[in-house]
Amino acid sequence: MSRFYVTTPIYYVNDVPHLGTAYTTIAADAVRRYHLLRGDETRMLTGTDEHGQKLEREAVERGVSPAHFVKEMSDRFEAAWPKLEVMADDFVRTTQERHEKRVQELWRRIEAKGDLELGTYEGWYCVGCEEFKTEKDLLPGNLCPLHPQKPVERQSGEAYFFKLSRYGERLLEHYRAHPGFVEPESRRNEVVSFVAGGLKDLSVSRTNFSWGIPVPGNPKHVMYVWFDALANYWSVLQGDAELEKFWTDGAILHLVGKDILRFHTVYWPAFLMSAGLPLPTQVFAHGFLTFNGQKMSKSLRNAVDPIAIARAFGRVAGSDAAGADVLRYQLLRAIAFGQDGDFDLAAMIERYNADLGKNLGNLLARTLGLCTKMTGGKVPPEGERSALEKDLRATIDGLWREAIDAWDRVEPHRALEKTWAIAAAANQYVDRAAPWAEDKKGNRARVDTILHTLLTVLGGLSSLVWPVLPAKSDEMRAQLGLPAIRPEQGTDCLKGIAARRAGEALKAGAPLFPTVDEDGARALLETLTPREAIATSTPTSTPTSTPTSTPTSTSTPITYDQFSTVDLRVGIVRTCERVPKKDKLLRLAVDLGEAEPRTIIAGLALSFQPEQLVGRKVVVVANLAPRDFGKGLVSHGMLLATGPSEALALATIEGDVSPGAKVK
Ligand code: MSP
């Protein structure tokens, strides 16, 4: 038995839980459940990252205190994960006292080592990344490639510097001595070349805002949010016994997205080296997801609610938990862990029908159906194995080992591929062994051997799928007359397929994954595809997206709820140009605080020169379905204006507001 501690990044609370953050969290849970099955003593941690300039500003913008804002948002994360069948042992919030105290302890240890020094900094800061950028990191116009909607800021002041430059050699030595420290290999190469290129000292405190953990002995400084955040993995282990168990003695796996690789593989190990603490065993960086082929901008991310996806599939698969299983399977099977991948709803439905329904679900249904008919609904005795059974067992043994190896290498997609290959092999075996033909011939012993073999394979599969399909594993096992998997420390539940005792009762039940037919698929796609993800929409007869002025004195009253379905946002016009051959239309790039400015086509050209609009703060209907003007012209929103088309007045906003602010 070994110890295994897995962590997710702690998520910033300026966002809600979305498919991207669900991906890491589900992967961590699945890997953890795999270790539970092995009988390991395990622990899983997730939580929220609540300090820093970004969150302080977001709270101010919403007119609430940072403490109130972060609590409300953190609650949403804590409530979300169990709905996706994630069973973390602990949920850390960086504003908790238990965390703050330990981070200050870490600071003191590093200070005592002589690795912190007061100095001054000046540089380009991206508040979105919470990181200084060098000029070569930036796009023209001082834009961060990850957050181009807000230019980076020139920031300067007094700060403590961590002597990162002292740790380059030691880090390189660590990567050499522990080739598995950074995975996958391509990421390790990236990190090694970054460190080999020379490390600069890192500023780890700020004085220009106060929403952070005070620096011990100099409370005019708060700690840099990444110093505070990275420490969470260690800070939550309270007391010597816990620390020894999971930090000193156990294997520690940090699962992260590739966006935060450097923080976890360079800064964090250097802090730990300085503090004289052991390093994690492995940092595994997975790739980034797109949704239906589109980059997940913030508005799209928010629109793709993983819980809504799980619920919708739950209506087909029998329960919310079953729906979560389907989502877990799709995320971990369709995307090679470590590489970028696309989450596509239509592909999810196809895979649901094929892998879950036709392969695994059908294997269970046909086996139990045959048992009901031929063995009185009981486990038959095994009898003598023929070449068919011996072949099947040899195939399964190989696949089983490959599945286990894949889990050990943190390759869930491969583990699932091998697991489903076992189900496919068993389905082929039924076809070849043809128990119905043996039954007709009155060959009782053969029928028993075949059905016994299938029941043992299904029993094995029900445990091998548990890390990803915990709810459906329970259901499978109930039908197979087996107790639900509740792993016990020290007991390896993954030893392979095990014989069953003859005479045990089976309980054939509803199909595990009822097929989604064409109508069902269409309905699922319609409910789940967010407007932001629709690339084109049906053209309407109005050739302009600005309304023509129709003075109205009366209109039908609507409720506040009806009004609030219209998402009005402040947008800043970043660029504006005429549309060739369309004398009324302008094409605008409007910044709504999303990852990329939106393209909006508006009938403003008779009233404005393009350059008059650049920089204006306009009011945008942000959730209007995209409108296709043909020839690749698609408008993703509408501006508000009044007046005749040659003398329009534009609704604009005064004052210091950020792009994306809600207009209420
Ligand atoms: N607060 C920091 C992490 C501190 S850890 C000490 C942070 N938070 S975050 O909310 O921005 O979350 C980033 C993580 O969310 C990524 O590393 C990844 O795990 C996940 N993802 C966010 N968007 C994603 C995709 N589009 N695709 C896959 N994962 C994504 O950074």
Poorly predicted ranges: 535-554
Any idea what the radius of gyration is?
A: 29 Å
- Name the bound molecules: 5'-O-[(L-methionyl)-sulphamoyl]adenosine
- What's the tally of helices? 22
**Percentage of β-strand residues:** 15-25%
Structural class: alpha/beta
Strands, total number = 25
Alpha carbon gap, first and last residue? 58 Å
Strands of the widest sheet, in order across it, are 3-2-1-12-13-7
Shape label: globular
Question: How many strands, which pairing sense, and closed or not: the largest β-sheet?
Answer: 6 strands, parallel
Topology (SSEs and partners):
Layout: E1 3-12, H1 19-37, E2 41-49, H2 53-62, H3 66-83, E3 90-93, H4 97-112, E4 116-126, E5 131-133, E6 153-162, H5 168-177, E7 182-183, H6 185-196, E8 202-203, E9 205-206, E10 214-215, E11 218-223, H7 225-230, H8 232-235, H9 240-249, E12 251-257, H10 261-275, E13 282-286, E14 289-291, E15 294-295, H11 298-303, H12 306-317, H13 320-334, E16 341-343, H14 345-374, H15 387-408, H16 412-433, H17 435-440, H18 444-464, H19 470-480, H20 518-528, H21 560-563, E17 568-579, E18 582-591, E19 598-602, H22 610-613, E20 617-621, E21 627-630, E22 633-635, E23 638-639, E24 641-642, E25 649-650
Parallel strand pairs: 1-2, 1-12, 2-3, 7-13, 12-13, 14-16
Antiparallel strand pairs: 4-5, 4-6, 6-8, 9-11, 10-11, 14-15, 17-18, 17-20, 18-19, 20-23, 21-22, 24-25
Helix pairs in contact: 2-3, 5-6, 12-13, 13-14, 13-16, 14-16, 14-18, 15-16, 16-18, 18-19
The structure holds 5'-O-[(L-methionyl)-sulphamoyl]adenosine.
